[in-house]
Every structure is written in structure tokens, then in C-alpha cells.
């Protein structure tokens, strides 16, 4: 991650939104985005979009997902970083459906 990216992500609020499928995470993120000016980072949607691209990440993601495996944390962090850097004016970020493991949370803290 570029140094300017790290400084952008150190100042805003970052909220991890977790819960089971269909529990209303997306709805709550939509409400908080509107009310508080936060940027919604929907990991599932980001990975799906990335899988449609011809980038090196996009070529790896579909195979991993079809095997029922978790996408490696490094790839996820790159996708999250790219998305959050595209919203530098945001007051904060709602990261939906991440982390899924304690190890991922620790890697996120180390990376950002």
C-alpha cells in the first residue's frame, strides 16, 4: 500500500459490520452511509467485481471461491485498500463481511 494510502486510512472511522447471511448488514450499511456520510465497503460485491476483471487478482478469485475456500487475506486487503482510497473524502468506512477470522483482523491492523 502506498504511504499516502496509509495516512488516509489512519484518520477515518473504520467499522466492521459482521453477521450471518440475510441478517440486514447491507440494509444497516445503507442507512449509516446515508445518515453519517460513511463509505460502504461490501467485500462480497468487491470480490465479485474483481473476479469479473482481467487483473491477476480477478483471475485467481473465481477458482478460490468455487473451491469454497476463503480468498487469501493479502488479496482482500488489496481490494479493500483500493476501494477505500477511491473515497478519500469519506468520514469513515463500513467494511461489510470482513474479517471472517481473527487472523484476518490482525493482518488488517498490521497493514493499515
Write the layout of secondary structure elements.
Blueprint: H1 3-10, E1 13-17, H2 25-36, E2 39-42, H3 43-52, H4 56-66, H5 73-85, E3 92-96, H6 102-111
Parallel strand pairs: 1-3, 2-3
Helix pairs in contact: 3-4, 3-5
Word description of this protein:
It is a single chain. The protein is of the alpha/beta class and 112 residues long. It contains six helices and three strands. The protein has helices spanning 3-10, 25-36, 43-52, 56-66, 73-85, 102-111; strands spanning 13-17, 39-42, 92-96. The chain has a three-stranded parallel beta sheet, with helices on both faces.
Low-confidence stretches: 1-5
Helix-strand category: alpha/beta
Percentage of residues in DSSP E strands: 5-15%
Q: Portion of residues in helices?
A: 55-70%
Q: What's the number of helices?
A: 6
> How many E-type strands?
3
Secondary-structure element sequence?
Answer: HEHEHHHEH
Biggest sheet, in brief?
3 strands, parallel
The N- and C-terminal alpha carbons lie at a distance of 9 Å
Inertia-based shape: globular
Amino acid at each position: 500500500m502506498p504511504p499516502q494510502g496509509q495516512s488516509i486510512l489512519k484518520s477515518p472511522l473504520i467499522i466492521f459490520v459482521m453477521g450471518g447471511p440475510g441478517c440486514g448488514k447491507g440494509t444497516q450499511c445503507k442507512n449509516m452511509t446515508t445518515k453519517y456520510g460513511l463509505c460502504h465497503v461490501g467485500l462480497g460485491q468487491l470480490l465479485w467485481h474483481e473476479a469479473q476483471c482481467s487483473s491477476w487478482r480477478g483471475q485467481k478469485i473465481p477458482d478460490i471461491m468455487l473451491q469454497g475456500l476463503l480468498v487469501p487475506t493479502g488479496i482482500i486487503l488489496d481490494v479493500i485498500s483500493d476501494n477505500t482510497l477511491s473515497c478519500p473524502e469519506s468520514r469513515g468506512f463500513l467494511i461489510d463481511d470482513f474479517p471472517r477470522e481473527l487472523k484476518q483482523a490482525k493482518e488488517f491492523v498490521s497493514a493499515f
